[in-house]
Amino acid sequence: MDGPAAAVQGTWPVLAAAVAAAVLGPLLRTAAARADAAQEQALTAGATAARAQARREAHHRFQDLLHDEVSSALRAVSMPGIATT
C-alpha cells in the first residue's frame, strides 16, 4: 500500500489508543471512586453492626449476672437459718 492508505494504516493504532485513553480514563476514575465509596460504606456499616452486637452481648451478660446473683441472694435470704448479713 502506498499513499494515504499506508499513512492511515500506520497511525490508526496510535489514534485509537489516544481516543481509548481519553474515553476510558475518566470512566475508570469514576468507577474507582464509586468502588472506594462503596467499600468505605461497607466498612462503616460493619463497624456499626459490630458495635451494636457488642452492646447486645454486654447487655445480655449484665442481665445474666443480675438474674443469677439477685436470684441466688434472694434464695439464700429466704432459707431458714441463714444470717441475712
What does this structure look like?
It is a single chain. The chain has 85 residues and is mostly helical. 88% of the residues lie in helices and 0% in strands. The longest helix has 75 residues, at 4-78. It is rod-shaped. The protein starts with a helix and ends in a 7-residue tail after the last helix. The mean pLDDT is 86.
Helix-strand layout with pairing:
Layout: H1 4-78
Task: Give me a quick take on this structure.
It is built from 1 helix and no strands.
Give short descriptive properties of this protein:
mainly alpha; 88% helix; 1 helix; 85 residues; rod-shaped
Helical fraction equals over 70%
Estimate the strand proportion. Answer: under 5%
How much is the radius of gyration in Å? 36 Å
Largest sheet: none
Distance between the termini: 111 Å
H/E element sequence: H
Annotation field: number of helices: 1
> What's the overall average pLDDT, rounded?
86
Please report the total strand number as a whole number: 0
